[in-house]
Design brief:
It is built from 5 helices and no strands. The protein is mostly helical. The longest helix has 14 residues, at 13-26. The protein has one domain (13-111).
């Protein structure tokens, strides 16, 4: 991550090696292998953090936006982001902290809640 407060758009080789080692310790692989490698997944999150785009606006080079979002969500629910942050040195932990806060970047306008329907008022019957 740049010291000027800007968000890096890609992982350096040194930071990636640190994250890769911590990932091997933090989780076990279960289920089918993913189409997107761990590094590409983290690069997609860095792109989203740097550009401020919504999940649906992720470029095609990162694969299906929903697959990226679901993987991010699973990692959050399983506590993998927290485990990574605890196992990494400060510079790499700062990158993970940025990636773990994806929800607060900008909510998608498609996620707006529908307005509740007004309740029907019982009217007296006419005679």
């Amino acid at each position: 991550m740049a010291k000027s407060g800007r968000i890096a758009t890609s992982l350096s080789a040194r930071v990636w090696k640190q994250i890769e080692l911590a990932l091997k310790q933090a989780r076990t692989r279960t289920g089918a292998p993913t189409k997107l490698s761990d590094r590409q997944f983290l690069e997609a999150l860095l792109h989203r953090a740097a550009s401020g785009c919504s999940w649906r606006e992720l470029p095609a080079q990162f694969g299906d936006w929903n697959a990226v979002y679901q993987r991010y969500r699973r990692w959050r629910l399983r506590g993998i982001w927290r485990q990574l942050k605890d196992r990494l040195p400060p510079d790499a932990a700062q990158v993970i902290d940025t990636l773990a806060k994806q929800e607060s970047i900008r909510p998608s306008p498609l996620k707006r809640r529908a307005k509740p329907k007004p309740k029907k008022v019982a009217r007296p019957k006419r005679r």
